[in-house]
Specification:
62% helix, 5% strand
Length: 277
């Protein structure tokens, strides 16, 4: 190949790239590798325009590959990925499909909620026993009478099953209502780029921190806050929007729903207070 001296503009043959010496003026010349230069140039189409780089194809996450990886492995990898590194775990996720999300919510939120129900029932029995020892028998009797009318006391298998069913129904209802309200907000703001499946999938995997329901007392509180923050992050990835807009889509509808639902017990309390002598 030929090289050109930058000083005297003379051309001379060389056998390799790298540092060379011009035979005419004896100045050092850096000869670049032509293959490297061609590789550095962007590819162009028939009209000479640079071609867009090929998009990385979406891949199913570990839970969606449980038939291939095995149930336990897929469960562990997904738990670790969602809770520890959600940005990396969902980097190439396919948000158009949401297979197996109902089973995922049942495992990470439904079963821990049932465990929490058992623990809280046992704790309630201990609290009522201590209240009797302190001479608060009238209060205990009133509490037990109220729970008996609700068919949740005394503790029994049938009562537990009824409460478990009600808990699961409430859990999935909140999941669908929250996803629907956030998706409606995204539609209203023109940012629902991924469709309904993307929104529901984000909320389903956003419920993963509710696995902390198995921890009494502080577990539900931490799990709910963590779940809300994870909803925002996953919703942003699912629709390709900023986390600010995702936060608006999650927080605004939830606040409105909380205010509306919170008015119901206040109305009952006001009605009961008006009947007092």
């Amino acid at each position: 190949m030929l090289a050109r001296c930058s000083r005297c503009q003379a051309t001379f043959p060389v056998e390799r790239s790298g540092r060379q010496v011009c035979p005419n003026c004896h100045v050092e010349v850096i000869v670049r590798d032509p293959e490297a230069l061609l590789a550095a140039e962007p590819a162009t189409n028939a009209w000479g325009e640079p071609e867009k780089p090929a998009e990385t194809p979406a891949e199913p996450i570990a839970w969606e590959r449980r038939a291939e990886l095995g149930f336990a492995t897929a469960l562990w990898r997904t738990l670790r990925g969602v809770l520890v590194e959600p940005g990396r775990f969902f980097a190439r996720a396919d948000w158009k499909e949401a297979p197996g999300v109902h089973l995922w919510v049942l495992l990470v939120a439904g079963l821990p909620a049932m465990v929490n129900l058992l623990v809280e029932t046992a704790s309630l029995e201990q609290m009522l026993g201590k209240a009797r020892e302190l001479g608060l028998g009238d209060i205990v009797a009133g509490t037990e009478a109220t729970m008996q009318r609700l068919h949740v006391w005394p503790p029994s298998v049938s009562g537990f099953l009824a409460m478990a069913f009600a808990t699961l129904f409430l859990l999935f209802s909140m999941l669908y209502v929250g996803a629907a309200m956030s998706h409606a907000t995204l539609l209203a703001t023109g940012r629902a780029r991924g469709g309904w499946n993307a929104t529901f999938k984000a909320f389903a995997y956003g419920a993963t921190p509710l696995v902390l329901l198995v921890i009494p007392s502080c577990g539900p509180f931490i799990g709910l806050i963590w779940s809300g923050l994870l909803d925002i992050r996953l919703l942003a990835k699912a629709h390709g929007i900023s986390e600010t807009w995702a936060a608006v889509a999650v927080v605004v509808p939830s606040t409105l729903l909380f205010c509306c639902v919170g008015m119901v017990p206040l109305m009952f309390m006001a009605q009961a207070a008006s009947q007092l002598p």
